[in-house]
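Hi there, hope your week has been kind to you so far. No rush at all, and the record is pasted right below.
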Amino acid sequence: MTGTAGAVRLDPGRPSEIEVCRDPDRGFERRLVTDPEDPYGDRWWPPGHVLGWDHPVVHENAAFLGAAAGDGEFRPSFADGRDVQRVLDAVERADERGAWVEV
């Protein structure tokens, strides 16, 4: 995934790690998501223990339920999903026309 502030790479075979690139000159850096400074690090076992495919689902549900309880905004939001659909629609229209289209 690439954004304006950098990029993130995920490897399903290494669920306890992510690779983050904030500076193209330095490239990607590997991070354990079980480190204490990770946003969910205080909810799992000590660093070095493997997380499974189900742990991100638990994190997502915790964030959603916390937002529903008034603890903050859940992202991605409905508006984010709508914007993605607008982009996907523009991609289809551009493909049909063989030209750039406005989103």
